[in-house]
Write a structure and sequence with these properties.
Bound molecules: adenosine monophosphate, glycine
Oligomer: single chain
Radius of gyration: 21 Å
CATH class of the largest domain: Alpha Beta
Length: 423
């Protein structure tokens, strides 16, 4: 079968590496992919948001199945357009992808269906938002409504900071049009857990839990990034918490989307916070997480393509999904300066011995040489029987990668190890 994956980051590389294990797939394409993904799939120079060209390519190449991985094309309706020409897809329709595409939609859904989340107010009028902040408790959290490359969230410690955040979103439009509506919500505390799940709209199967490390620097300092590393499973996600989540969050969300006429099929990502009052939803994503996927999929035992088609065909209840009883760690190697300005174009060397453990996010081939082309350049993953060993191996593997100006956090998984030890 001919399969195409839309997207070109570390997450897509992890998906492609896993799909390559499937015997049924004879040809694998990535749109646009990247210089590293080119080792594992045929890269086609079509941007992930160029829906018209994606559909034209799929039709011309007679693609049998498509995986739409990033949020943008999902929210823009890539799955709807591909379905229209008869191509089955993994990923939600536009109507369902709104669960990530609009924070206002997601919050209102949770309120309507009693799904635990932070208390909140929605504003489309800047003066009303500023007035509300005169008496709102601080710290408080300000979120732009639409997609903002994961950056549309500002945590304000004081009322003045909160007002400045509102002005920057609604007046200065630092996140573009996504700032025309904002959510102001209660600041919650507790450990964060990412749970990716497969769902066909009837059954929901959570994958192994994971922990992201969003800040740029060690000790959770520095700016928020797209993610500097991950570990799985997440020790805070106990069996007891998992059971509560299934009952109060996962099933009610699937049910709510069905009731709204927006059946969700694909990977639904639950960003959770385990608060004193139980687990609450911080965010939904309509796709695999990045870099969560780089630790979750290496632990998946079942054939990924089989699962994806079961999601499409709504037969997930008949598909057994197994994860290895092991741990995984992924260390993201970035260009110095990320998430702000950084230089690119440095030669990227990856030792052959660890190439299968490397998921490339930002690199391109120039004159036959692989060069860095992004802030997050790649992720190095390792799996092992214990989390400690997995972390050690991931850092050891990272020694097999070199490029000028490389930097990475040295404490990925440290918090998780402490939690395991009960510290
Ligand atoms: P989001 O893009 O919604 O995931 O938000 C990015 C990050 O901001 C989350 O991973 C949390 O660390 C933090 N965050 C978002 N909402 C809240 C909240 N209500 N309380 C505390 N932290 C939050
Ligand atoms: N790692 C967070 C995300 O994928 O949104």
């Amino acid at each position: 079968m001919k399969v195409m994956v839309v997207g070109g980051g570390g997450r897509e590389h992890a998906i492609i590496k896993k799909l390559k294990e499937s015997r049924e797939i004879t040809e694998l394409y990535a749109l646009p992919g990247n210089g590293g993904i080119a080792q594992d799939a045929i890269c086609v120079d079509i941007g992930a948001k160029d829906i018209r060209k994606i559909v034209e390519f799929a039709a011309a190449e007679k693609i049998d199945y498509a995986v739409v991985a990033p949020d943008d094309p999902l929210v823009l309706g890539a799955v709807d357009e591909l379905n229209k020409i008869g191509i089955p897809c993994f990923g939600p329709t536009k109507a369902a992808a709104i669960i990530e595409g609009s924070k206002v939609f997601a919050k209102n859904l949770m309120k309507k269906y009693n799904i635990p989340t932070a208390r909140y107010e929605v504003f489309d009028d800047i003066n009303k938002a500023l007035e509300y902040l005169d008496t709102a408790p601080v710290p408080t959290v300000i979120k732009a409504d639409g997609l903002a490359l994961g950056k549309g969230v500002i945590i304000a410690q004081t009322r003045e900071d909160a007002k400045a955040a509102v002005r920057s979103m609604m007046e200065d439009r630092i996140f573009g049009e996504s700032g025309s509506n904002i959510v102001i919500e209660e600041f919650l505390t507790g450990p964060e857990v990412s749970v990716l799940s497969f769902t066909d709209g009837k059954t929901v199967v959570p994958m192994v839990s994971s922990m992201d490390h969003k800040r740029a620097l060690d000790g959770d300092n520095g700016l928020n990034t797209g993610g500097m590393g991950t570990v799985a499973p997440n020790p805070y996600y106990t069996k007891e918490i998992a059971d509560i989540c299934m009952k109060t969050i996962f099933l009610p969300t699937i049910d709510a989307m069905n009731k709204e006429g927006r059946t969700f099929k694909g990977c639904l990502y639950f960003g959770l916070m385990i608060t004193e009052n139980g687990p609450k939803v911080i965010e939904y994503n309509c796709r695999f997480g990045d870099p969560e996927t780089q630790v979750v999929l290496p632990l998946l035992e079942t054939d990924l393509f089989t699962i994806m088609r079961a999601v499409t065909n709504e037969t997930l209840d008949k598909t057994e999904i197994k994860f290895k009883n092991e741990c995984a760690a992924c260390v993201i190697m970035a260009s110095k300066g990320y998430p702000q300005s950084y230089e690119s174009g440095f030669e990227l060397k990856i030792d052959e011995k660890i190439a299968d453990k490397v998921y490339v996010a930002g690199a391109k081939k120039q004159d036959g040489v692989l060069k860095t082309s992004g802030g997050r350049v790649l992720g190095v993953t390792a799996t092992a029987k214990t989390l400690g060993e997995a972390i050690e191996k991931a850092y050891k593997n990272a020694e097999g990668v070199s490029f000028e100006n490389a930097f990475y956090r040295k404490d990925i998984g440290a918090k998780a190890l402490k939690a395991i030890k009960g510290e």
